[in-house]
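Limitations

Structures in this collection are predictions, not experimental determinations, and the ligand pose is part of the prediction. Treat each record accordingly. The example that follows, with nicotinamide-adenine-dinucleotide as the small molecule, is included so readers can see exactly what is and is not provided: the inputs are given verbatim, and the output is the predicted complex.
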Amino acid sequence: MNDHYLAFANSSLGRALVEGLGLPRPPVLERYVAGSPAFSRGDCLIGMAAGGELCEQAGHVLAAQDNPVWTVEQDPARAAIQACELEVKVLRGEELEKARLKTVIFDASGIRNSAALSELHRFFHPVIRHIAECGRIVILGRIPELVEDAAARTAQRALEGFTRSLGKEIRKGATAQLLYVAAGAEKQMESSLRFFLSPKSAYVSGQVVRIYPSAHLAAIDWQSPLSGKVALVTGASRGIGEAIARVLARDGAHVICLDVPQAEKELQAVAQAIGGSTLMLNISDAKTPQSIVDHVVGKHQGLDIIVHNAGITRDKTLGRMSLELWNAVIDVNLSSEERINEALLSAQALRHNARIICVSSISGIAGNLGQTNYASSKAGVIGMVQSHAQAYAEQGITINAVAPGFIETAMTAAIPFAIREAGRRMNSMSQGGLPVDVAETIAWFASPASGGLQGNIVRVCGQSLLGA
Ligand SMILES: NC(=O)c1ccc[n+]([C@@H]2O[C@H](COP(=O)([O-])OP(=O)(O)OC[C@H]3O[C@@H](n4cnc5c(N)ncnc54)[C@H](O)[C@@H]3O)[C@@H](O)[C@H]2O)c1
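Predicted complex:
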């Protein structure tokens, strides 16, 4: 579906008119194009608060790209990344005035009390007006719940408020995220840094991600991270599911595209376009979990990635909602996922270092009028991810979820105009996301290098005001 206002506001005539009337101009977001450099192109700035423990590892990741790297005057980052084979220059004077910073990393893990939070001001204040269009900011900290000292835990928790506010201030399609890294998980940061410093995270902002130690640290080909992997995507015949299937196939996976038999024609077309295969099943049917197990074990000797994307809405206010509508939504969106996971796990059909990725919704976080059934199902998906994350991780399997906001699909095209416009604009990007934005986030979770991510719920919502 087209966002006519976005197109108009960015045309030469529209731009002048929109600016003249003082209306917001949604930026044109940079998105990843297959084959282009993984990192966003442009100047990169790195800094840290004294005592930071994550900067050196971030420096090693930056050494894998060829953008110029800067730091600010007297920043301890320079000494911390000495061993990283990086040429780091100091940004000051005229160079600072002219700077357009595309990526910024700040290691805040050394902030151990509230007074030291001023380090955030020291580093960001002089540079914040120099963030480029579609720039990327990543702040690194320690998982507060795992920090023993109360003052340090308090200070690390404060980073959330800072990051989310920064996301709202920088605008121009730029994003800000906070990565909380557990002690011992430093080497697991790379897949997340690569994702959040690239155009792949175009519609993800203000998010907080927790990274844990993992025995899996695969050396992967970053251009084709899913090579040799088998993925199953439910609801793959259109919309977000189709985009997920295409992105996972682009990243090298063989994708089994699953959808209801009524969608056979569209499903075949998607599978054919990406060299995948099809499975026509209704996920609500009692026999479906076993059919999936039989298929993946019989044809592929197991599964590496399952994406629970299929979902339905049957909106009515609760007083008007029949039990049938209630049950249909809970069953497709939640119970069927539980049944499929159980069947795959008990048949040991998921391979080691496998990924379960669920599609929740901001409706499940914020609630929504007319969606008691849908919001319950999507909040239940979050519950399912959080309840199983630790036990699955012990079996070498990760489970995470994305929670899309307003994404331009057939589902949102059906929303009445006024509500649709509000949904589109009420976020830091002033626009809806595209199915590919959800798909890129899922591909990051799916990567064999993302073993440190478990139990995360990442919103793909342009930092929507809803449920924030
Ligand atoms: N579009 C958005 O803005 C948005 C926002 C938040 C969450 N989501 C979630 O993202 C997912 C995809 O949404 P979409 O907008 O692409 O929806 P869509 O309606 O365009 O596609 C859903 C797909 O799931 C399939 N499906 C439905 N019931 C099924 C069943 N019982 N068995 C097998 N397949 C079934 C459909 O045939 C369809 O191909 C859903 O889980 C939805 O709740 C979407």
